[in-house]
Design a protein that fits this description.
Layout (H helix, E strand, L loop, with lengths): L1 H19 L6 H14 L21 H13 L1
Length: 75
């Protein structure tokens, strides 16, 4: 579960970085590309924002909870 969350977070951060550093005249092309790629993704749009709260019942899963919150914030 941590691996999946980390992978999803890295995709979101990468997309965000690219959009922030894309020249203004190319934003439309970049957004269109990301939209097409996100639509193809089986985990979009529901899975990135869903949480399995049963994972957070133990204190040892605090890292997973923090990773999940960081992921939601970046979405």
């Amino acid at each position: 579960s941590i691996y999946l969350k980390t992978t999803e977070l890295s995709k979101v951060l990468f997309a965000r970085y690219l959009l922030e550093n894309t020249p203004y005249n190319q934003i439309h092309n970049c957004v269109t590309f990301f939209h097409d790629e996100l639509i193809k993704s089986p985990s979009f749009p529901r899975k990135p924002l869903e949480s399995d709260y049963n994972l957070y019942t133990r204190i040892s899963y605090k890292e997973l909870f923090n990773l999940d919150m960081l992921h939601k914030y970046n979405w």
